[in-house]
Amino acid sequence: MNVLVVEDERNLADAIARILTDASYHAETAYDGKAGLSLALAGGYDAVVLDVMLPGMDGCEVVHEMRRQGVSTPVLMLTARTTTEDKVEGLDAGADDYMTKPFEAPELLARLRALTRRRGDVMLDQVEFADLVLDLTTHDLSCGDASVHLSGKEFEVMRTLMSSSARVVSKQDLLRRVWGDDEASENSVEAYVSFLRKKLAHVGSTVQITTLRMLGYRLEVFGS
Predict the structure, then answer these.
(1) pLDDT band, very low/low/confident/very high, at 93 (cuts 50, 70, 90)
(2) Which residues touch 55 (CB under 8 Å, ≥6 apart)?
(3) What residues contact residue 104 under an 8 Å CB cut-off, 6+ apart?
């Protein structure tokens, strides 16, 4: 499960990431509201752990903007505040659950499990965009009756692009999301985008990966 952690206290953010990693989750961190929102809008996360008090853009603003732009990823908000009014504000903004600091690792993990279970009836084992279907289990990309298998990195790049709902995804975001701490360059991103373009043509999709100079990539539909 991929979890985004948005927390400006770096020690706490890194500690949460370690808790998640130790529990076999994949965790990414952002240290301010705007960076967190950018990653959340890029898609591909199964849950977001979001602090309320963030520099630049607070947690309530972040989750409100996520919901406004159609991102339904479950959000667990963190705060040192304990009043009912504060909790109501976060939940009304679009958060799914609320947890006060300090907290223990088992509670964090239990709440994340509950969030994903709660969405179980609407969570799919595939991602769809236009005429494409990406199977999250087999890593097969299909268009109508045609399908092709994606390698590990191809799958992660395609999943990120398809989950972004035609929003632009930068090369740096793809490097961070797909390659993580591994040494890789923008040339690696370009190579895998090239592989995916060939596979899109192979299955006869109307979807193309468009390059936006100095910005990144997004999926667009051409023809019929």
Answers:
(1) confident
(2) 8, 32, 33
(3) none
Residue with token string 């903007």: 65
Structural domains in the chain, CATH included, are: 2-118 (3.40.50.2300), 126-221 (1.10.10.10)
> The whole model's pTM is what?
0.60
Residue range 3-19: mean pLDDT, rounded: 94
Phi and psi at residue 100, to the nearest 5°: -95, 150
- How does strand 26-30 pair with strand 2-6? parallel
Check whether 116 has a pLDDT greater than 70: yes
Cα–Cα distances in Å, from 153 out to 24, 178, 216? 19, 7, 17
Q: What is the DSSP string of 119-171?
A: TTTT--SEEEETTEEEETTT-EEEETTEEEE--HHHHHHHHHHHHTTT--B-H
